[in-house]
Amino acid sequence: MGRAGSGREIDLERVKPYADHLGDGIVQFSFTLPVPYGLAARKAAQELAKKLGFEHPEVVHYQRLTDGYTYFVMFGECTQTVDYASLSNEGFDIEYMSEDEIEVFASERIGRPIVIVGAATGTDTHSVGIDAMLNLKGFHGHHGLEGYRAFETHNLGSQVPNSVLVSKAIDLNADAILVSQTVTQQNLHINNLTELVEIVEAEGRRRQLILTCGGARVSNELAKELGYDAGFSKGTYPHHVASFIVRELAARAAAA
Amino acid sequence: VLSKLIAPARRLALVGLAKNTGKTETLASILRELAEQDRCVGVTSIGRDGEEHDVIDARIDKPRIVLQTGSLVASTGALMRTSGVAYERLAQTGVRTPLGEVVIARLGEQGAIEVAGPSAAEDVREVSEAMLGYGAEKVLIDGAIDRRAASSPAVADGLVMATGAILSENIEEVVAVTRDAVELVRLPKAGNEVSEDERVALPRQIVLNGEPAEIAALLREHPRASTFLVEGALGERFLEGLLAARPQRAGRELRIVVGDPTKVFLRHRGPNWYRRQGLEIEVLSTIDLKAITVNPVAPQSHRFDSKRLRELIEATIADVPVLDVLDPSYHAAPEP
After folding, report:
1. Which of A52, A89, B91, B293 is deepest in the core (most CB within 10 A)?
2. B101 at the A interface (CB within 8 A)?
3. What value of ipTM does the predicted structure carry?
């Protein structure tokens, strides 16, 4: 059981959307139908919401978008629940920490500088992503891992061949490799990301090295497919990456 | 057909030369055949399999993976739960992936499952062993994208390779890429006939990161050596360095010995090209290639005639069956 701000108990095994009071299940949603604005359109939207499984659907706002198109904002009661409690125990959730919390966590749980090697690999000339994560300057007022006491960072820049990156990581006895790649639908970029993992495997270092990749289109699903330990996408700040690395290192140390 | 070809392999790896070469269709086909024979199988995946849509191109629908009651599977707890299929959790593996911790489960009913097992080769090996321990007669290890690590003889006893139209719009090019990949997988086993002073173990740094001048210096240091041992990854950068430095050795042939074919990384030229230049690549352990499957369709793009593609590949690559599991010919084919 969790506890809401008001002090009411929340059943984390049966979580529902919340609007006015806990458990009301109220959802606000919007859509456009390709029908002319009018009462028939309003009725159609209500019927559709019912078919979507919402109880007591209400049209709270609707307007003509252009000829033959109407936009709706709806309220409806969701009758479904999700089991948050067991999902949060499945080990894919990363609990983010602030920079200060990361420093404390690292000094207590790791107790030595954490060595991180990063690069934009292959033919990728864009170092902006890796610079934002690693360099002191960082971005949006969050400085990069270079500015943390917990980390010893090595930014190799852009267009780094995979074999060179792995060689440097082994020489520096790195804990983690950060790769930035502008992932497109062309296989070249994808294959370049998988090649790095395969070289690390060939060197027999896969279990010792934390591998993370970042890029505009990199999700955790893609990271799994590629064989990385985590994938970071838009909206990632250096402390997100740092949180993952220190927690993963601590988990590996605990398992060893 | 496939189930006969792979019968001797307890741990079978499926590797695609790229995404959408039909690897998961091949897996589904093997699963159907093994289900008909009432075999207990275990399934694990390097990436993620049985997902509804492709992770890179969401327009591409993927085949589902249907497992029978009693089948074993390695996947994350969250994916097992969302499958909605009844299962018993046999073990937490302690292997963490971006999609959660991997569990080993036994299905309580038939159903479609999203499979996401460990990615690291060592973990794949351990999870496969665990599933065999829980009673699986055969473990199928599905690859991801073009990843080969799990086909290493340290992990699997046999390999089925998937290739297809996605590799190129030019059918000859598809055949050529497949030929190079097969040459790589079937690198010859190294003999033991080389004397101590003729074989040199190479430092990792020079293989991964050596400049041409360092590689030339290495050859000068070992004028009598005919065999170089590479413990880890061997890539084109080093091979090209060797070729450039070779004239000073009057073109004498060189042999490079690596652990197994998954440690060799060639993008531009196949092993036979290097052999013709006098650089022989050999392995300590070989991979047993059981079959090649083809997908004549490139999603959202082009397609080839299945029979023509298979015939061209068969004409180029000897001694391995070439199959299209979705073609009517697959079920009509004579038993091997």
Report:
1. B293
2. yes
3. 0.86
